[in-house]
Structures are given as C-alpha cells and as structure tokens.
Amino acid sequence: MPPRADPVTTPFDRTAAPDRSPVRASLCARHWLAAASLGAMAVCAVPAFAQATGPDAPQFWDEGDPDNQPEIDENRPDGAAPGDDRWYVPAFELDEPADGTVGFAADELQYDTDQQIVTANGNVLLRRGRQEVRADTVEWSRASGAIVAVGNVRSVDDGGNVLYTDRIALTEELRAGALENLLIVLGEGGRLAARSGTRADDGSITLDSTNYTACAIETGDGCPKRPSWRITARQVHYDPATQKIDFDGARLVLFDTVALPLPTLSILAADRAVSGITSPNLRFTQSNGVQVSAAYYMRIAPNRELTLGANVYSDVLPMVSARYRALTEKGAYQVTGYATSSSRVPVGNNPTRTEQESFRGYLDGNGRYNLNEHLSVTGSVRVTTDRTFLRRYDISRDDRLRSTVSLRRIDDDSFFEFTGWGAQTLRFGDDQGQVPFALPLIDYRRRVDDPLLGGRIMLQANSLALVRTDGQDTQRAFAGATWSRHAVTPWGQQVTATALLRGDVYHSDENDRSTILQYRGDPGWHGRGIALGAVDVKWPLTGGLFGGQQVLTPRVQLVAAPQFRNSVIPNEDSRAIDLEDSNLFALNRFPGYDRVEDGTRFTYGLDWRWTRPDWRALATIGQSYRITRDDTLLPDGTGLVNRTSDVVGRAELRFRDFVKAAYRFRIDKDNLAFRRNEWDLTVGTRETYAEIGYLKLDRNIPVVLEDLQDREELRLAGRYAFASYWSVFGSTVINLTDQAINPQFASDGFEALRTRLGVAYDDECLQFAVTWRYDNFESGDVQRGSTFLFDFALRNLGL
Prior knowledge:
The chain is mostly beta strands.
C-alpha cells in the first residue's frame, strides 16, 4: 500500500457507542489561578464524564496477536476487513510495563504514515489503571513514543490529583512531562495553578509563576467565588509522596489586595497537621500593654504533638507556654504550662501593699486511660502560683482550681469510684486553709431486682474524708438501700413507690474553726439512722389544642420520714439549698448527703406540654405542704421554712430554632412577692440573633450563708451577620444588685461587669476578628480597663 502524503481522517461509527461528553475544563476553571500576575479567582464546575466501556464501545485489535487478526481487504485504502463500514488504523498500543495496558477511545483518528504519527481528535480518553488523560487532541509518535495532549486537558494521577492544562507531554506510562498554563486540583482539595511546569517520573511537579489556595472557589449554589486568600510564588515544588508543597519567593494575598511576603513556606496538601508557625495574635490590655502572641506547632507523631508559645508584652516581661498532647491505645492526655516573671501585688485592702517581683505560672493537665472495658482512670491537675495570674494574663476567669484523680469501674448493674481531689481558691477574702482536700471519696452502687415485691433495689456504700490545713476535719461513711417500683393503673395513673434505709457514721474535730455556726455540727463520733417512704402519682391526660397535641399531668407526692439527728452532723455538701422547680418533687431537697429533709410532707403540682409542627410549649407549677409541725434545719429564705412552701414553676416556649424563651419563678406564699424571677429569651438564627437574660434572687437569705447570696443581674448578647461572611457582635453582663438586695454589695445598682463589642469575618478558610472588651474588675495587679484583641487565623493551610 503506497504511502500517503496527506493524513486520512477515519471517523468511527458512533451509533452504538455510549455518549461521551467532551472534556470541557472551562477557561474560568483553568485560568482563574493561571499565574501570579492574575488577580481574578473563579472556578467553574467541571462536568462528570461517561466512561467508554462495554461491548458497544470502540474496539481495537492487537497487531502482535496472530490469532486475533481480521481478514484484510487489500482493495480498501485503510486495510480494513471486508464488509466493515468503519475505518481502522493499527492498534494504539504503547510499550507497556507489566502492570497493565493503556485503554484508548476517541471520536476520530488521523494517521500520518510518513511521520508515523497517530492523531486522535474529539473526546480523547487514555486510561491506565487509576491514571486517566482526557483532551481534545492527542498525538502519538510511534517512532519516538512521545505523546502530546492538547486542548482542555484533564489528567488524573494515581493519587487522585487532577491536573487541568492547555498542553501536556506524556510518557508511554501516561506520566506527565512538560506542562503549560495548568491547574492542579489536589486530591485533598487544594488547587495549584501555574504558567508552566514539569512533572518527573516519580510524580513530583515543579511549577513556575504559581498560585495556590485551599479555599472554596464555588458557593453552595455553584456560582464562582473569590478565595479569601491565595499564595503566589516564583516557583513551587510538589511531592505527592509526602503531600508537601514547598514555595520559593511566596506572598500571601488576602482578598486580592493585601500581599504579605513569605520568604520561605512549606505546607501540607493533605488534610492533617504539619509542623510550623501558627498565626500570630495581637491584643492590648490595661495590665500588660501591647501583647503579640505566636506559637510553633510540632507534629511529633500522628498521635503526639507539642506547641511552644511565646507572648511578648510592652509593659512586662515575656511569657512562655507549652502544650503537649498525646493519644494512646488506652486513652489520651494533655499538659499545658505557662511561665513568666512579673510584679505581683497581693490581694486585699492592706494599704501597705507593695509590688513583689517573682516567678509566676500555671499548670493544667488532664487525661483518661481505659484499663479495660469497665475500668478507667481519669485525672486532672490545675494549680497556679497566685490568685491574680490567670486573670491578669487572660488565661482563665475561674475563681477555683480543682485537681482530681479517680479510678472508676462501670458495668450494666454497678458503679465504683475511688477519688481524691483538692482545690485552690482564687477568691478575694477566702482562706486557703479552709478549703478541704478529699482523701479519699469512695462510692459504690449496685442495682438488683427485687424477687419478692418486684421493682429494683439500689445498694450504696459511701465514704468521705475531708482534711483542712487550717479548719475543721470531717470523716463520713454510710451504707443504704433504696427500693422503687413503678406501675401503671388501668385508668392510666403512673404510680411510683419508694423506700429508703440508710445508716450514717460521722466523725469531726476542730469544729470551732469552721466560720459558719450552722455548718459545724458537734465534734466527735456520731451516728444517724434514716428511714423514708414515698408514693408519687402522675396522671397524664392528653387531647388536642390549637392544631397540636397537649398533655396535662397532675402530680401528687407523699413523703414520710421520722425526725433525724441533723443538727449534730457537720454540713459539708448540703449547703446550697433553695426551693426550685427542679427539686420540688425530690425525696431530699437538700443537695448532697449531710442533711436529710425529715417529717411528712405532701407535694402537688401540674405539668403541661403542648406540641405542634414547629412549636413546643412546656409549663410546670407546684407547692408542698408540711404535715408535721416539727422544727427543721432549713434556713430562712429558702422557701421551705414554714409548713406551706412557696410556689415554684417554670415555663418554656420554642418556635423552630428561631425563638426560645424560658421563665422560672418562685412566689412567696404569704405576700406573693417574687423571690426568684428569671427569664431568658433568644430570637434569631445561628448567624443573626439577640439574647437577653434577667435574674433576680430576693430571698432574704442571711448574709452569713455565703452559698445562698441574693443578687440581680441583666445579660445582653447579640450578633448581626451581613455580606455572607461578616458580622458584628456584642455582649454585656450588668450587675443590678444594690444594698437593699444584698448588704454585702457596694455597687450602686447598675454596674457593667464585662462588656464586649467586635466585628468579625469568618468563612471556610479565613477567620479574623477585632474585639474591644471592658472588664470592671480590679484586684491586686489585675487592673480594670479596656482590652483590644486582634485575632487572625488561616484555615486549610496545613499549619
């Protein structure tokens, strides 16, 4: 067959072939990030492509297989088989490694017999294993083995990374070589674009005039979106084995306007952390002046990390910090520490106070280990050098630090705990010597079925030892059993019967060192027996209302118990008693174990629940009446002193997630005064909302009981979102307590304790905020005044 001077176009018969939409990596998809000089950033979606597979797809035969040779018609210019209306060319087969062959499909072929070049046009597809190349045109030189793909090229490598380019040179293994005007979509979501580049046999890529971003370039509706940040560089090297991207001559561009130099930068394309410097923060405080904070994150191992931080101040010496975290097969733990040296002013009203230069710091650690399916060990330690360090350096606003270690065993029917804990007080005026250590607390409970009367029995044994360095010491042990049975009558009433038996042993000494007489008890050894019985009856009544369903549940309870020896027992854990809707029907309305409510009382109330689509309403109200006339240890102002208690209740209303309202109250049964008046209201969405809360406790509690102080406060908070990612926010807590409510307070009845205002930007890959905060608190070297915070964080950058 004589050679041809012109290539021959050989169209395939496409009637039976599946539809393969043309590869169209549109210009905006490939050029939005094509070079550092381009500012516009928008990517259009790339359509999915049909696969040319199955018996109806174009078939190719193998020249080298003598058993698979069609009959050749020498009169046909292309050498096709007789009767075949399609035109064939010699098979497109490459010098293939042992792991597979290259599959091929296209709309049409051209074959230049003189140059030994095969040209495929239209929807060209090359596939080898997980590798794939699609293009408008592919040229293959049979003589040299070179393959060049041109026009809307889309190449996928073994790692799932997608490359878009205008022109790409390939090896016979479909490995990319020279690249021009390209966009690489990494398997982990990042995007690299460049004017040109080369790809080595190992898959590493070197790019020139490059842009990179890990931000989304489409909105949820599929419309183009400018990334919040991108990195431009003279040259970039990407290693697919380590997923590491190294930048040379990089700049960080924010919103296509602000460019920050980054002389050297390495990031991780994979969605996991990598060692590096974290984003810095800037703030100004009244106590320390200007503060710049930064940290270095070290990825020691996939399950271990270390963060070293530094805080530099204009008015005081720097502070260093470190945090170590680890995850093991049995559990996890973390340790955080801060250290500095600065002047410290002792708290108190001593006019001779002087500043003391000393070491200051804070240690915070916690962890948990699961020894087996049921047994675990947990622990935490929190300790600081002085009472103002945490507030001055804005680390924490807690007024007590608690350290604990606990061994627990939990299964389906039992619970065991062996715990020790201690606390450090940071409160002004508190004596650390009066703060107890628990060494130890032991608690065991087991639940068993009652074979005689039915129901369940809860067995419990408990022991506690409290030790103070400058105060009363108390030891306690008790054992008891609680039986309960639940039944439903034929008329729908829910009846619960309960019986409790318990024996207590107490020992205390140095009781006179307790500052509150009501809590001391008598020194020495004391015993107490407790017997209690109760019947609780509920009767749910259901029906329709306003297009929804309502349930009205009257409830009554009778509790009977003899008078106990409460007065001789020290009160360590039953101090903060107050009648509320949550404990109205409790068997013992004292918290803890040291005090047990005695006598016989009758409690009655009403629960109501209404629901309909998008709406929910709840309400409860109740009161109790003491049948016995014996005196009790209930303090004045708790709502339980007289035979008839105050009235307590709660109401809630919710409309979808847009409106949430709650109201709690306690009304004096004598003069109908509100002893508790508390309400919270939230209106809005997660992006834009307003919150308001109000609390007034006017119970006439004796001032000596520090656990039950009266107060009045107002809480306001809000956030307004605009322009998709921007928001303004604010909050404040206002102390409305005056001396008429609590004589110990010196405020005038309107004092803003803490106020915050700010503006923020927050999208999927960038977050920054500017916040002003005013703290009206002063103690020692913690000064009241304004704080300005500038927070900045780049997400998805791999740091």
